[in-house]
Amino acid sequence: MTDQNSAVAQGRPPATGSVRRIRLPQKLRNLELGLLIVACVINAGAIVLVQLGALGRVDTQLVLLGAGLSVLVFGLHVAMRFVARDADPFLLPIATVLNGLGIAMIYRIDIANGDVGWESAAVRQIVWSAIAIVAGIATILIIRNHRVLFRYTYLSGLIAIVLLLLPLLPGIGREVSGARVWIGFGDFATFQPGEIAKIALAVFFAGYLVRNRDSLSMVGRTFLGMRFPRARDLGPLLVVWALSMSVIVFQRDLGTALLYFGLFLVMLYVATSRLSWVVLGLALFFGGALVASQTLDYVGNRFANWLDPFSPERFDAQYGGSYQLVQGLFGLANGGLIGTGLGQGRPDLTPVPQSDYIIASLGEELGLAGVFAILALYLLFVARGFRIGFAGQDDFGKLLGVGLAFVLALQVFIVVGGVTRVIPLTGLTTPFLAAGGSSLVANWIIVALLLRLSDTVRNHPRLVIDG
Amino acid sequence: MNRELKRVTMVALLMFLALFVSSTVIQYAQAENLAADPRNSRTLYASYSVERGPILVGGEPIAFSQPSGDDYKFQRVYSNGPLYGAVTGYIPVNGEATGLERSLNDELSGRSSSQFFDSLNRLISGQDPMGASVEVAIDPVAQQAAWDALGDYTGAVIVTEPSTGRILAMVTKPTFDPNRMAVHNSEEVQVTYDALLADPGDPLFNRATGGDMNPPGSTFKLVVVAAALESGQYTPDSTFPNPASLTLPGTDAVVRNSGGGTCGGGAEVTLADALRLSCNIPMAELGMQLGDTAIREQAEKFGFNDEFAIPSATEPSVYPRGLDEPQTGLSAFGQGDVRATPMQMAMVSAAIANGGIVMNPDLVDAIIAPDFTPIDEFQPSEYGRAISEETASTMTRMMVNGVETGAASNARIDGVSVAGKTGTAENGEDDPYTLWFTGFAPADDPQYAITVLVEDGGGLGQEGYGNLIAAPIAKQVLEAVLNK
Predict the structure, then answer these.
(1) Interface test with B, best of A279, A368, A399, A430 (most B CBs within 10 A)
(2) CATH number at residue B437
(3) What ipTM was reported for this prediction?
(4) Is B316 part of a structural domain of the chain?
(5) CB–CB of A378 and B16 under 8 A?
(6) Residue B32 falls within a domain, yes or no?
(7) B118 located within any domain
(8) Where do transmembrane segments lie in this chain (chain B) (predicted)?
(9) In this predicted structure, what is the pLDDT of residue A220?
(10) Closest Cα to residue A356, out of A411, A293, A423?
């Protein structure tokens, strides 16, 4: 920690070289523009291939809708030319290509199911993508300096709690396939507020930990070579743990609980450098999960399916069986190394192939090569996020960047790991790919925040040189 | 802070590494195992989504695939299903395929190694994958004649070409419509299958090449006479004692001739007369003189105790090892533990017709790729020499006499010399007989070898006999093909 950073963390407005904007060519933005064009060509190509593979002809309507989306993405790019000139050039193209691949695959499932018009999940996904990208543009335009968020630490925490509780409210709470994590009004616009909550939580954790890390890291007694915190400092950890456990019990959503808790632990560790927190936290969480697996049927089923999905009693079980898991494995195996080709596999044989299982659908039609490419894109995205953590100038920004990047990595791990039997299967959306508006909005806001954070990372050293 | 960040980066990297490994395990290492799982409907749909090649008889499809508009994409259709069911078999959406649908599945579905480049070509040029077509040797005239002649009897008819082994007709009854097993509804298929399985007439049997095999009865005398002539110690004029009954040594079992009395007149009977009149006692005497080893070795030269892929799998006919003297005596007229399929007996007749050389039986003439290039064309192949040319011509004369003046008289055809041998086999004390005819025509220039099997005594219990029921069926079929 340098003095300058402390000062920054306290909210001093950054100096910006306004003259420089005119002088320097926007190399980063030009790179981004090139990559964006590539991404949009890939997306349009994917939709055309789906149509050729599954319909045998090209239908221009959906291509045009996709083109409309590209216009919005370029809109975000243009906005950045003015307000985030030095932002990371890779984040936006990666998000764009993942979003587009997702739309192509959702569209492909629509064709298999015979859904058209507003019945079509792909059309809804495109509309949601438009809303999400507009939300991203708004985020980057409104939040000109991420340190503003530091002021709203506790408000963010409150917002997160409220968003989490919303689905439990009678009237607007909705239960979908057992998990009570949705809200809706009438039959209209179901939304998973938990997706937005993860951003609010990341902001809250970052702000809270920057403020309180001294007391969390400095005191305590040493045991087994690790310094354990004092009992009264355990409060925050216990609160988040209780929050996660209540998500498991009341919302019946194992994946989300793991996501929140994992996010908190990592940010706590980065902020305090204390491994003991992680050890304590993991012990608490797995202790809780173990109890849950014994007492809650749905958790127990998930574990049993994970351990032995091919046993006839698991496969044929009427409720909570391994049918979906095994169908997903069959689909991935069907794809093999190079896949069946877009529109030519049978991803529709797996339940919910367009949301929880979209990675299995993509794996079937694009093969192991496609899965590797998608995972590599996520990995690159996450690496760009971590880069903010390494090169960032202020602790709040560093923590927030790491938190947002890690939450995305963890989410990919939980859902893809669940599908590929690394861990028990839990329902989570695959970022950018899966059908679902709330997830898209949340992830595009994450893109905007990471772009904003990366802009400041680039800014500072240059500013020193210019100045 | 950066030290912790490095560790978190490592954790994230490990998480992704785990995903790379797990997806590789599933999509590469375990892919084949997963595809082989019987619950994997993708594998099933994939085997249907290829336009399966047709099975052709004289250029006309007897099995073909047409677009179905459902998950399976193509519906398999068996035109004239019951008539050709023994040839085509069927391919169900659940359970195993049978017949050529099973044995040539790789070729029909375009997955055989010889079709690899063709498939690749179609993939690159954007054409839908398609299986090869199979042209079978079946002669539609012979097949229809065999179907009509067999009528409502339980049994089988098989016609082969002696010089090549090509199977020209193969009919089994009772049978069923394979289209019923090809419906795209696994429950319906299961119900149909269970009903067929429970049917006392055993319609699922292909009696021409398997099923519950029957004792060949007197048709097996051809094998014993062949063994005798080949030994060099016997000629058609060799004589045997001619009693009206024979008690097998060391037993109470009494052998009688089918007429009940002696074999023709006289105290002794020649080998030629014994075969012509199909007498059991002299054959039992001959068999015991030859011994079971000599008979078995001769039988095995004709193909007994061996499997043949035509290319559908067939049941091996049986001549057991280690028979004692009375058992050998019984085996000499095709009783005891001897069992034979019509295809095996057709091979015996065809070998005699073919100068002593046994040809491997085969149903398939050609396998043709979708672009009309032949993948595989029929080449006659020898199983081996069973008897000398001399023995073959001697036996042909004896079999012609059997039809002209002997026990197989109902196979006579005006203007054509027919060689034949009937059989009437006992199954148990009170059970109906099994009736046989095996032979070939024309005897001087053999074009067709035929074997007829009628189970269940042809409905006459122990009143039916080979010449009464089986020989006329053979005659009707031979007339039809010779008059083509």
Answers:
(1) A368
(2) 3.40.710.10
(3) 0.90
(4) yes
(5) yes
(6) no
(7) no
(8) none
(9) 67
(10) A411
